[in-house]
Amino acid sequence: MQRIGVLGGTFDPPHIGHLLLAEYTLEALELAKVLFVPAGIQPLKPDIRSMVDHRLNMVKLAIEGNPHFEISRVDMDRDGPHYTADTLPLIQSDYPDAELFFLMGGDNLRDFKKWTRADEVIQHARLAVMRRSDEDISADMHDDVILGLSQYVDIIDTPLLGIWLSSTHVVERLKNRQSVRYLVPDAILNYIYEHDLYTEES
């Protein structure tokens, strides 16, 4: 059975943390590919900063050249808000014979019990969780709330990755006119400057 990773997010903007999560998980779980799923309307982030077309273009630039990375428009081509519990069945219908793995950082696992219809998410995909060296998370941390959740969690240890980047951190540095070189791929940085994104005026 083909194994496919699903990495959802606003990607506003995409950064090397997203790419590292996808690459580490691809290797650790022997995935055939990782689907990047840009959100149209994300319930937990109503203040999305960039138009969806810009975010899509930046994801294209970010994954360019990696034959194992692809884009899914499943959330962009339908009305929101978009919940993971709704997105995964749609992706499964596109890949009926695949086993899905939903990629996330440790912070997402920590908050997973708060997700809308979290119990439905694990009916459609396993959770592939990247654990930083300084994170206190475990597969069974929510078993008292979501019975048997640990059976659906794969923890991927990344001892050399001591930080976890966020798009918010990147944007804050851009607004403060601080360097984000090496935090985002050069092609995305050039795109941000070309389209004057993430400035106080934009």
Query: Which regions have little confidence, pLDDT < 50, spanning 5+ residues?
Result: none
Query: What is the 3D form?
Result: globular
SSE topology string:
EHEHEHEHHEEHH
Largest sheet: 6 strands, parallel
Q: Termini distance?
A: 46 Å
Summing up helix and strand content along with how strands pair, one would put the structural category as alpha/beta
What proportion strand?
A: 15-25%
CATH secondary-structure class = Alpha Beta
CATH architecture: 3-Layer(aba) Sandwich
- CATH fold naming: Rossmann fold
Per DSSP, the total helix count is 7
Question: How many domains is the backbone divided into?
Answer: 1
Kindly report the spatial arrangement of strands forming the biggest sheet.
Answer: 3-2-1-4-5-6
β-strand number: 6
Report mean pLDDT, rounded to a whole number.
Answer: 91
CATH H-tier superfamily: HUPs
Radius of gyration: 17 Å
Helical content, roughly?
Answer: 25-40%
